[in-house]
């Protein structure tokens, strides 16, 4: 029996464990990336581990999230990250150089390599044939120090793409169709591999759009083969030497298979407030819109931008619409300026933003109250845009541009003949905004610069024998990390200041939660299925840790958030019977007696609901390493104790 593409890369990087789905494996990581919203904490953790020099083949620190400098905080964080990077052997991508995933795809991604990033959309690298995974900042810090990255061995899902996309139908519509079929929970514990004749019709930027938004499936990662299309992209980036041909064995066996006929797809949109709430644009109809935002790590490539410019050329944005466009990298922006496409956008009335994440993370461009915003982004969670009552729709660049002109949600197929866009044979290469680190000897005297907003990393403590505390919050299904720890321009500047950040925890669900935690001193959270989906942000675990949360009991957990809870020393427990979720209410007093012994070796834990005088069985299924981390009170404590 042959290997799938992802199994081949895993096998080549396997440090420990066996490749049985569900069992824990340890992987060697070749490359890492961080961004500034999560990177400050990752580098604080790296410094806490006293690692003098990174051990990876390549590590890059990007500044792309907190670029709105409405105070000293973001600028201080950037300077801190820069000082760590030049001292510890990390390349530093300066503000304005672009979104981490777009730049990494262009300049650093290598087929067959492993990439770990402190951002959930790191699987963008799968578009170039990398095994690229998102993780919490602490896991990335450990990997930078030469440590192993541990995950449950994923199952593999093969998605066969047949046919060819019709005019005006885009790669974004492919991944929206996958989400429509599989849901935001459909990829949990799985790697999505794309295959079939249809992949030969997709460029690397189109493939990257699909793997990027595979994060919304809850998948470990998504990946395309590395083929002649990959070679052509790398050659155009002056990186043909990095090309390696990679594909699955013909007799590889998959856990699931799905076929999508590209020729049968039509323009799609994800409706508020979930990426899998997908309907055809035609089905939704010509609803009035207020805003269109084009960009993000999903759809900001030169290929996407040229399509948008061609649609806007000679037109004017509708008077009821605010159109903003954010090219994904300095390379993209410079090439748009050189070939005249940027002028076409500006003349049409588009507002050109810097090459950064911007409105995708609520960093500016919030819609008007009750506004309808079409976005080429990857997430439309409630409140993520910065406007609590806005309706966010996720669409392709073609649909976005067509709608910006008409003023209503518009099927781009109504525009007539589609402009032909060809990928350039050579991209403009200028890496002058990537600062190289100091040499090892020079770095010895370099100083790490801390600003006053940068506070110490919160630490857990050794697990006690009994936890007796109240349920301080009960939430439903599909709670995202945006619910737990919101983003946005008002909050993101404090990502390196957990005490200040704590006042916003679960603000979307219950603004009184932080105050209850402070009064109680400790507590438990109860959640539904897919708890913690979305971003890799470990602040969604670190802030509850700071607020005294000892355990989260849920119907099921998203992979990255569960790992972040364990790394923080918060115990993630699962209802053995999902119906028992209904047997615990906010305010109930729970007792986990003998929890230390249970975590040390049991697969089941009994929780005594003192308020209701009932007992409920919980699953406590962890790897041996995870058990040791929980007993120590988190990964930093575990690492320190081992030394």
Give keywords.
single chain, 643 residues, alpha/beta, 27 strands, globular
In short, what is this structure?
By secondary structure, the protein is an alpha/beta fold. It is built from 22 helices and 27 strands.
Overview of this structure, please?
- The model has no long low-confidence stretch (mean pLDDT 94).
- A seven-stranded mixed barrel has the order 21-22-23-24-27-26-25, surrounded by four helices. Strands 7-6-3-4-5-20 form a six-stranded mixed beta sheet. A five-stranded parallel beta sheet has the order 17-16-15-18-19, covered by helices on one side.
- The protein has 643 residues and is an alpha/beta fold.
- The chain is 30% helix and 19% strand.
- A hairpin with a 7-residue loop joins strand 1 (14-16) and strand 2.
The count of strands amounts to 27
Distance between the termini: 42 Å
Which structural class fits the helix and strand makeup?
Answer: alpha/beta
Main sheet overview: 7 strands, mixed, barrel
Tell me the Rg in angstroms: 24 Å
Shape: globular
Percent range for helical residues? Answer: 25-40%
